[in-house]
Each structure stands twice: as structure tokens, then as C-alpha cells.
Amino acid sequence: MNRIQKRSFKFISLPALAFAMSVGLVTSQAQDVAETPKAEKTSKMKWKRSLAAGLTLAKGNSDTALVTANGLASSKWDKNELSLGVDVARGENSGTLNTETLSGHVQYNRLISERVYGMLRTEALHDSIADVELRLTISPGVGYYLIKQEKRNLSFELGPSFVYDKLGGSETSYMALRVGERFETEISERARLW
User: Domain extents for the chain?
Assistant: First the structure.
């Protein structure tokens, strides 16, 4: 169809060309409107990623050092939200190890309305100082956005949790209540505070 239009433009007058172009624009807009529902159903995941690192040194009565790092990736598409995170910390006090943790989470939210969502969160923790080989927490629940803006969000979450602990060589599991909140604001295009 485009080949025919290009060939026919060579032989028509300027007013006819302008009319043909405006009809082409209207036609393409109509096609975009007709294809919008398909585009919404197959919209791609767009990821926001952040990395943070910290170093704390203190000299005096005791010599302490603490190194921390964390990474966070989140995506929102259609009525879905996905968040992945990892945190690492290692510290010493006068040459003795006093902090050594590794933790991570995966959380999936499904919007029920503009502000209410159902969620499932899985967390894992290893803390060698507290002798926690593994703490695995699975938490379904419901959440509510108190603030939901393009660059600022505040949400609260509530639900039961199943916790599995491998602590000091023994294994236990139990139920718990999870209450959570998350605040995030975009300071600039490349900086966020949470």
C-alpha cells in the first residue's frame, strides 16, 4: 500500500498531496487507537535499578569498620509490580568480626484497584554472627498506597507470614504477622531516597 501511495504522489498536484497526507495521518491515528488495547496487554516491563554502598570507619577507644552494599530493581507493567533486592553488610570492631549478613527479597504485587493490591513476598537472610544459617519468610498479604504519585510512593502492608529458621544447627518453623511500610521518592532522574 505504501508503494502505491508513493508512486501516485509523483503525479498529483500539491493540494491533492496535502489532502492525501492529512488522510494518511488520520488513518494512522485511527490505527493507533485501534491497537491501543493490544499494546496495553503486551506492555513491556521497564526496570528501575539502584545500587548503594557505604563505608563507616571510627578510630579512638575502639577501631570499627563497617561496609554495606545493596541493590534494588523494580518494575511496573499493566496491574503488576515486581521488586527484587539484595543487602550485604560486614563489620569489625577492634579486629573482631561483629557483622556479617546477606539478605534478599522478591515481592510481587497485583493491583486490585488504583491504591489496593494483593502481594506475595519472599525473604531470605543469612547472619553468621547471630548463627542464623537461613531464615526464609513467605508472606502473602494486602497493601495500600497512601501516596501514589509518579515520583513519590508510600505504602503499607499487612498479612500472615510463614517463617522457617535454621538456627545454630536446629530447624524450626512458625507463623507470624507481617506489618510493613515503604516510602520512596525520586530526587532526580538518577537518584532516589527510600
Answer: 2-41, 46-193
Average pLDDT of the residues in 66-95: 94
The answer to whether residues 9 and 20 touch, using CB atoms and an 8 Å cutoff, is yes
User: Do 75 and 81 touch, CB atoms closer than 8 A?
Assistant: yes
Predicted TM-score (pTM) of this structure:
0.71
Mean pLDDT score, 61-90: 94
Can you tell me which residue has the cell 508472606? 139
Average of per-residue pLDDT across 67-73:
94
Matching residue, cell 571510627: 58
Residue pair 184/155 in contact by the 8 Å Cβ criterion: no
Is the domain covering 46-193 a CATH 3.90.180.10 domain? Answer: no
Indicate left, alpha or beta for 185 from its phi (over 0: left) and psi (-120 to 50: alpha): beta
Residue 18 CB burial class (10 angstroms; 0-12, 13-18, ≥19): exposed
